Amino acid sequence: MARFFLTLSYNGTVYNGWQVQENTPNTVQQVLQEKLSMILKEKIEIMGCGRTDAGVHAKNFVAHFNSHCADLISNKSQWIYKFNTVLPVNVSIQNIQQVKEDAHARFHAQERNYYYFLHRQKNPFIENYSWYVYGDIDFELMNKAALILLEFTDFTSFSKIHTQNKTNNCKITKAVWQKVADNEWRFTIRADRFLRGMVRAIVGTLMLVGKNKITLSDFKKIIEAKDRSVAGQNVPAHALFLTGIKYPKELFE
Do both 100 and 118 map to the same domain? Predict the structure, then answer.
């Protein structure tokens, strides 16, 4: 039996997040396990690089699984085609790579990257993948606040409460708002790991800065408080995309 990394994309609109949960049948992980088990004719259990919330999308999500299939790599393009023919239209596999038997999609990830999209003029063609925000927003000020994130490691103020995390420490290496088109902006954030709900809570709090409801000093104090109740609300999930995962090269066969 060998271990493989899957690279896939999914539109999270209709799913209750990535991870299989009790009383939550409609998840991306569940769909993949069912379809790959059917095609490979063996029980397939998949472990993802993280757990995206309901409604969140992924452009480059990585998951690992074990299989007895002898030609999964030598006949890779055919297997990818077979998998994609049985998967729903909102899930797509792009690549399969053989990795070392102890390689772990979640624990060996060195870096994760997210995008959050925002638009300031109503646009029916991006409405399902970007957050429409009316009114003036000071993106320059929000970028000053985003740089403050790089000074800290404990992001309890931006984490969902009652999680099973052993630590709320993360190392953020990039956080920036960039204009991508007229009235369209993208927030990029990169870190070694993310807490549940962290990106949406950060964006929600940055928006308080951008709307001049709190100061840069207030933003810093929110982080230092280590208290979710003092930060901004979670922004909508439909504008959030997991876009990339980085792994050590030595994991790959």
Answer: no
Residue type, 200: R
- The reply to whether 192 belongs to the active site is no
Reported as a single tens digit per residue, the pLDDT across 153-209 is 999 999 987 666 778 999 999 999 999 999 999 999 999 999 999 999 999 999 999
- pLDDT tens, 14-59? 999 999 877 777 999 999 999 999 999 999 999 999 989 999 999 9
Give a yes or no: residue 41 inside a domain: yes
Give the helix ranges, DSSP H, for 9-120: 28-40, 76-86
Please give the residue range of the domain that contains residue 60.
2-107
Note the helical H segments in 70-197. Answer: 76-86, 139-149
Task: Tell me how many domains the chain contains.
Answer: 2
Within this chain, do residues 77 and 97 fall inside the same structural domain, yes or no?
yes
Residues near 153 by beta carbon (within 8 Å), at least 6 away in sequence: 169, 170, 171
Give the distance, in angstroms, between the CA of residue 79 and the centroid of all CA atoms in the same chain: 26
Same domain, 67 and 140: no
Choosing from 53, 71, 192, 218, the catalytic residue is 53
Dig out the tokens for 90 from the structure. Answer: 């909102």
- DSSP letter at 235 equals P
Tokens 């029980």 identify what position?
Answer: 43
List the CATH number of the domain containing 120.
Answer: 3.30.70.660
Which single residue is written with the structure tokens 């999964």? 72
> Does 99 reside within a domain?
yes
